[in-house]
Amino acid sequence: MKHLIRNTALATSMLVSIGAAHAEWPTDRPIEMIVAFAPGGGTDVMHRTLAPYIEKELGAKITILNRPGASGEIAYTAMTQAKPDGYTLSSLNTPGFLTMQMDRKVRFDPKKVCLVARIVEDPGSFIVQAKSQFNSLKDLVAYAKANPGKVSVGTTGLGTDEHLALLQLEKSAGIDLTPVTFNGANEARTALLGGHIMAMGINVGEFVGSEKSAFKALGQFADQRAVIAPDLPTAKEQGFDVIMSSERGIAMNCDVPEAIRTKYSDAVKKAVDNPEFQEKAKQQSLPLSYRSSEEWNKELPARAERLGEVWKLVKEQK
Fold first, then answer.
1. Which domain holds residue 152?
2. Is pTM, for the whole model, over 0.90?
3. Mean pLDDT of 66-90
């Protein structure tokens, strides 16, 4: 009986300690945000712009750590393998997070990836040097038809939105393009500026927020022209059936206590609603499209189904 009382007391003490730890989170220990792409790209810019406002809500320091590669798999693996104490999060981007699971057995357990919030949805686009002979997708397609495989297009990896847009354009136009992979949009921009590739896939927000005098966009892969780029024709307007966008948000290990995940999610919502952040997001050309964890989870299956149809184009090339 004494052993039972002692064990019960010990268990109660442990539960109280765990509860107290949850209540104290976050402490003065920095929270690490693993960004799945290289510095300077749209994902990196979004997180660096948002982080100070989340810090203000939590009273904690957020450290950005770039871990690019494998379309985000490196970042997701690092996040899910870290101690589930609420001090390690990662960026989460679709379509890459979904398509990598269609492509291969990933090194992390997708069931351990819990969505915290979606911040941005940004339609895709192709851009070229400002001095390029191409002024539209029609121009690029005409050249590609006359020169099969000669048009090199920068992407940030297999199954990313730029790569899938490229495959859709190939099918819709009946052309052959050559994808070239980079660790982030900033690296691809540098290669494009140096003439190492002829075009690159980029999100509209990234293009609008960049130094546009050096580049020009050929079209956007959206149903309708984005508010941030009302003068840029869609692919459909130019006769090509290409629809593709990138979602950018935040994920946390599902083994992190729900109370901590909820606290972080609430802080993100307050940060996104902050008028000062919204003004900075406008300056950075971030197309805000907030979804809570619950809302994003409800929408993801339909997006995965649509991407599954597009993914068939990847399989056709293998």
1. 122-244
2. no
3. 96
